[in-house]
Amino acid sequence: MRFVIVTGMSGAGKSTALKMLEDMGYFCVDNLPISLAEKFAQLILDGVEGRIRKAAMGIDVRSGQALEDLQNVLEHMSIIGIEYEILFLDARDDVLVKRYKETRRAHPLANGGRIDVGIKKERERLEFLKKQADYILDTSQLLTRELKIELDKIFVYNQEFNSLIITVLSFGFKYGIPSDADLVFDVRFLPNPYYMDDLRPKTGLDQEVRDYVMGFDNTRIFLEKLQDMINFLIPNYINEGKNQLVIAVGCTGGKHRSVTLAEELYRCLKKGEGYGLSLEHRDIEKDMYRKKG
């Protein structure tokens, strides 16, 4: 039997994760009273020879004060031999606030007040679960399909899991450095395709721009040194328990050089294992140039 407790911050994707687990063949229940958690797990365990061999249970702050009893419940489950795994879904505070505003939902702990106050209270209440979590997924930069890929790795292919999610992000300095960037690399030292009339309206996603940017020795040397440094840092970040790494590559407008280098770095990192990976071009559509006629 495989029994998974799915928990985490409200708005971080717990309901979505449960639906994905259900599609993977897990029997899923959400917001079950804490007092019934052990009984539910025991029923699944007793019926291991039956049809249910995988189950997941969603738990969050909607359990109210009973959430405080969960620690004792988990300890007793371990004592009597019920094995479980904890999947914790997390996201940055600013991302959670944005998601709440977009959906116009009220935070369960905000009591009609500010969302960020509710988020702070929720983090405090869930801290003990995050510390015990077997898997922590930060969904701040993850698309739904990328979350599915990460869950497949853990619960379908049983790959060794490290909680680090790497986001390679291109941006334009004229629009500001990304506030969540951990590592920032400035590629404005490279020749700018903007000054080539035939390349100006294109982006780093176009082959012509890529060929131009990658055609310089300095570009290839930079990429080689950057890849070498990132490959050195990744295992050290994993060992330190870091779960989110944003690598930002910037040029002037975020349309040509940074996009090309971000695409190349992403392609190189895809060959590695032990971490999740996503790619984002923040400013690629902010400047819509036309050819001079």
TrEMBL record:
InterPro entries xref list = P-loop_NTPase (IPR027417), RapZ-like (IPR005337), RapZ-like_N (IPR053930), RapZ_C (IPR053931)
Q: Does the keyword tRNA-binding apply?
A: no
**What top-level branch of life does the organism fall under?**
Bacteria
Q: Where does ATP bind?
A: 8-15
Xref: Pfam families = PapZ_C, RapZ-like_N
Query: Where does the chain bind GTP?
Result: 60-63
* Residues covered by the RapZ-like N-terminal domain: 1-158
Q: Which residues form the RapZ C-terminal domain?
A: 165-285
PANTHER family according to UniProt: RNASE ADAPTER PROTEIN RAPZ
Q: Identify this protein by name.
A: RNase adapter RapZ
Q: Which organism is it from?
A: Blautia liquoris
